[in-house]
Design brief:
6-stranded mixed β-sheet, about 180 residues, Rossmann fold, about 15% strand, two-stranded parallel sheet, alpha/beta
């Protein structure tokens, strides 16, 4: 997250996730992607998503908000920073207790010879091998939703469905509707 992007339409989508997940597993933003206290405060004011500080005492979700997205498994550069996160980190967040991890993912590895949809599938299959379950919300602001088990993923699907999210916006590891 950069100051220059605060207030863009992606932030409206993040606030929508906050509203949808509030009664199931409140969402908290991973602080390493939102540097500096001033930016964190402005982000929370706009999105209503507090910054994660320790493990919450009630069921919770994590928002990873890297500038670019999720590293493609198998790519040479698997470093993380403010711009990228790996599937391993998402799987670790689930193992540490998050009921859901929502990750902004606008990355598109053009040199991989895979279409964007195939890249999403590859990430979802890798998440599955790491013990997680997930699907993509596909739009101008794409997000990977990950859950620790099939029950939580089903509950998450129901939340999105009940909120009116169209089936064609959800993509599973086979590239078909997950809802």
């Amino acid at each position: 997250m950069k100051w220059a992007f605060l207030g863009d339409s992606y932030d409206a989508v993040k606030r929508m996730w906050r509203d949808m997940l509030a009664d199931w597993a409140s969402i908290y933003a991973e602080p390493r992607f939102i540097p500096g206290n001033d930016l964190q405060q402005a982000f929370t004011r706009l999105t209503k998503i507090p910054i994660l500080q320790g493990e919450p005492s009630q069921p919770y979700s994590i928002l990873n908000d890297p500038d670019t997205g999720i590293r493609l498994p198998g790519e040479q550069n698997q470093q993380e920073g403010r711009t990228h996160v790996t599937i391993e980190t998402i799987a670790d967040q689930l193992r540490l207790g998050a009921r859901c991890v929502v990750t902004f993912d606008q990355s598109d590895y053009r040199r991989s010879n895979l279409s964007l949809r195939e890249q999403h599938r590859k990430k979802l299959r890798f998440l599955s091998r790491k013990g997680g379950h997930g699907f993509y919300y596909v739009s101008h602001a794409p997000f990977l939703f990950a859950a620790p088990d099939a029950v939580a993923l089903g509950q998450l699907r129901d939340i999105l469905r009940d909120a009116g999210l169209p089936d064609n916006r959800i993509e599973d590891h086979q590239g078909e509707s997950e809802l």
